[in-house]
Write a structure and sequence with these properties.
Length: about 70
């Protein structure tokens, strides 16, 4: 039997509306609102999941796969 390390990564997404003069300003406003806790991503909105695996000695591995 071999030992494997498995990494699971999931991405969540949420849509927010921002009023701004241009896209750069919209990004800045969104970032500030995210860090202040005004924009919160709900954990139930998973956009995709990835998995990666390798042996503990890193001699065998598999590329990231979506599942």
């Amino acid at each position: 039997m071999k030992k494997f390390k498995i990494i699971i990564e999931k991405h969540v997404s949420e849509e927010f509306e921002v009023e701004a003069e241009n896209i750069e300003e919209a990004f800045n406003i969104a970032e500030k609102k995210y860090y202040s806790g005004e924009f919160v991503l709900e954990p139930g909105n998973v956009s995709y999941k990835l998995m990666f695996g390798e042996t503990v000695d890193r001699k065998e591995s598999i590329e990231w796969i979506e599942f």
